[in-house]
Amino acid sequence: MRLDLRPRSRRSPLLAALSPVLAFAGAVFIGGIAVALLGVSPAAAFLTYFVTPLSEVWSLQEVALKAAPLALIATGLAFCYRANLWNIGAEGQFVVGGLAGGWVGVATHGSEGFTLWILPLMLLVGTLAGVAYAMIPALLKVRLGVSEILTSLMLVYVAELLLDYMARGPLRDPAGYNFPQSVAFDGAARLPYLAEGETLHAGVLIAFGAVALATLVLTRTLFGFAVRVVGASPRAARFAGFSDARMTFAAFAISGGAAGLAGIAEVAGRIGQLQPTISPGYGFTAIIVAFLGRLSPPGILVAALVIALTTIGGEAAQIDLKLPLDLTRAFQGLLLGLVLGADVLARFHVRLVPGGPASPRA
Amino acid sequence: MRAPAIPPLSSGPTPLYGAYGIVKRFGDFTANDGIDLEIRAGEIHALLGENGAGKSTLMKILYGLLEPTEGVITHRGDVVRLPDPDSARRLGIGMVFQHFSLCENLTVAENIALVMPRALSGRALAARIAALAETYGLHLDPARPVWSLSAGERQRIEIVRCLLQDPRLVILDEPTSVLTSGEAETLFVVLERLRAEGRALLYISHRLDEVRRLCARATILRAGKVVGACDPRRESARSLAAMMVGAQVSALKPPAAAARAGERLRLERLALPAPGLHATDLRDVSLGVSGGEILGIAGIAGNGQAELFAALSGEVRAPEAEAVRIDGRAVGHLGINARRRLGAAFVPEERNGHAAAPGLSLSENAVLSRHATAPLTRFGLLRRRGARALAQAVIAAFDVRKAGPDPAAGTLSGGNLQKFVVGREILAEPGILVINQPTWGVDAAAAAHIRQALLDLAARGAAVLVISQDLDELFEIAGSVAVLHAGSLSRAMPRAETSRAAIGLLMGGSADPAGPPPALGAPAGRPEPAHAEVS
């Protein structure tokens, strides 16, 4: 017996729209079984994971704050992945962006007088640092043909260790009792809160803006067209005159810049100082988000919210129901697998064909 | 599987294999339309036909790669089913593919072991390889890695793989297309020996002289149907070609004597090293095309056509800017869009994935090659209405049949997509058009439409360069023809002063293409029809 996949001649738009919903339902079902096997009521777990975080103002804000960097990074990554370029190092670009932008915040600490320029400069430096850091794998790929998957991934660890060193060493607050962290940023170096006394800050707006801009670029501009063609038909892209090398640089610049901006937005927003670690793995989770959102910016926004919801819900479940945090990660992986599987089912007929495996000559 | 025997088409012994009433449809397209074929033990049976005549489809059906829509296949008179290549192999059918499937970094023995049953490996296998090599003169060093072997040696591996299964029928798909003439001679000796052992061979080739030399029977396909059967030894290459090509569908209007507008496209001693093992070096290629002229580049596939096209289009840059000139300007260092802005247009050979992105809509595919030369963008934003209007104009002018208002390019049939990609470039009203295999795998009506459009474009003063394997096409539309062989281009010969035989000789590399052209009408003292080729 072997599985035979045949493309469906006609793709049903209803099926395409429904497939992520069905995948989510399937993931909840399988997750419910796992929860039951852990001795917890699946209904209680469902409430804690998916309902409670949406019912309180503070947890809604937490969901948005978690979703913002994920959406921003994943939107940038969508440009790379659409063009068949595999930037796995958004985490490193995020960290370098946070570090470089945060360094501006440290250096301008205590500035007097007109300080409105500090925050924009931090965001700019963070973004550019992310771009520059992403240029390393791009350059190695274009000039030497080195796999960008390996280089971008390895540069994550370089970035993390660099931040660790800077936070413990040169940028440590001299008056901070040897705690491995920088001075707390001035108000002028912090992203403003959207409402008095709440946690939601302007980084959320940046993410929204980036998603809208990316949607426009991908669907309405010649550059976005080039990204789509390079990914779908590389030879046709060359025939169209879209250069592989330029596309590699551009896509890495966009994803690196988005990750760097997300990094400095996190540092200037929620954290407010430099620490040895600034990311709970946003750059890696964003890869899942990008594919959950099928590499389209609006889809990515939804996927980021779903993943943020499960993360916040997972934290609550850990506290309230004593469920392990790994369950959340397993659930996120399960969700991705089911969404991709549902996509295959929506695009292909799957049949079991009697007989051995297809001949290698076939 | 036993079923009532099918009476053979002809008297005589029951054929070893028979195919009766074979129909294969792909959607609306009928690739095989009621084909009957009988193969007897101890014969080399030729399957002749133009590109797109249905040879490959029939061959794949016989090897179990495709199942026929209708019709039956028999083995010694019994109806059999061939759902996959394994069942074909069990019935003694083996195949030598045109494109080898070998792992470059494995040795000869490893490549052979790869497709053998697990029980047979190591020393036993080496012994059998050695025995085969002895019997058939298929000399192979089992320890050599495949990447170090020539095309002929690689083919020997494929043949050995096939013979290790002791087939009763060997299907050979264009076996000489990648071989030098010396290697081909060696192959013919092997084939003769196989025939003498009582095996049947189904020989698929474009090269009529080979067919006339090797084969005692031939079945000729045209547009999916059997149009004739003959003994090729009693036919001339010319009569075989006539059966393959058939009557012309519609006569083309010859161009009105076009005003010669001076040379518009020039290649000057262009030399490009091959980008990979399977590519061809271009060696000192020079050519010139004037306005109003159609220059044809003949040649057997794989002699540098793709490389020449890439160098002309700018997808591959020339080492010197002066090697390529458009209207006198040195453009060797310019990319494809810069050349388009200078009035050039290009149609590559491969429709799906090169000339067009199959997953994108027709209007997006209009943007693909025209974004630099048509008003399809404003400040980097796509003008989608403009793209749709351009696609509609192409569809109307070239009678492109499609489903839906703006379907994905991949949903069009080959002929309609080809009309779209040709029309897309011709509506740009280019001063220079370079087109590779303009009517490859396209039905006769669409082919005539495309050829007429090329003639009309030249009549309006454009320089048109047509790279084609189809000699009939070149003799129909080109004013002069040059031959590309092993990366070298012959001098261009005016159509009136050359013959198919002369071109055929050059295509086979029988004359030094860089040297003077062969004496017209009397090619090198060899009988004329024997070397004509129709592809």
Description:
The complex is a heterodimer of chains A (362) and B (535). By secondary structure, chain A is mainly alpha-helical. Chain A has a domain at 69-109 and 116-296. Helix content of chain A is 69%, strand content 3%. Chain A is built from 13 helices and two strands. Chain A has a two-stranded antiparallel ribbon with strand order 1-2. In chain A, helix 3 (57-82) packs across helix 12, helix 4 runs parallel beside helix 6 and helix 7 packs antiparallel against helix 12 (297-320). The radius of gyration of chain A is 22 Å and the shape is globular. Residues 357-362 of chain A have low confidence and may be disordered. Chain B is of the alpha/beta class. Chain B has three domains: 17-245, P-loop containing nucleotide triphosphate hydrolases (Rossmann fold); 250-343 and 430-535, 3-Layer(aba) Sandwich (Rossmann fold), CATH 3.40.50.300; 357-427, no CATH class. In chain B, 30% of the residues lie in helices and 22% in strands. Chain B is built from 16 helices and 23 strands. In chain B, strands 13, 16, 19, 20, 21, 22 and 23 form a seven-stranded mixed β-sheet that branches. In chain B, a hairpin with a 2-residue loop joins strand 17 (377-378) and strand 18 (381-382). In chain B, helix 12 crosses helix 13. Residues 1-5 and 512-535 of chain B have low confidence and may be disordered. The chains are: A mainly alpha (362), B alpha/beta (535). The A-B interface holds A 220-223, 225, 228-229, 232-233, 235-241, 243, 355-356, 358-362 and B 65, 83-86, 95, 97, 101, 115, 313-315, 335-337, 340, 346, 348, 350, 353-360, 364, 367-369, 371-372, 377, 380-382, 384. Chain B: InterPro entries: AAA+_ATPase (IPR003593), ABC_carbohydrate_import_ATPase (IPR050107), ABC_transporter-like_ATP-bd (IPR003439), ABC_transporter-like_CS (IPR017871), P-loop_NTPase (IPR027417).
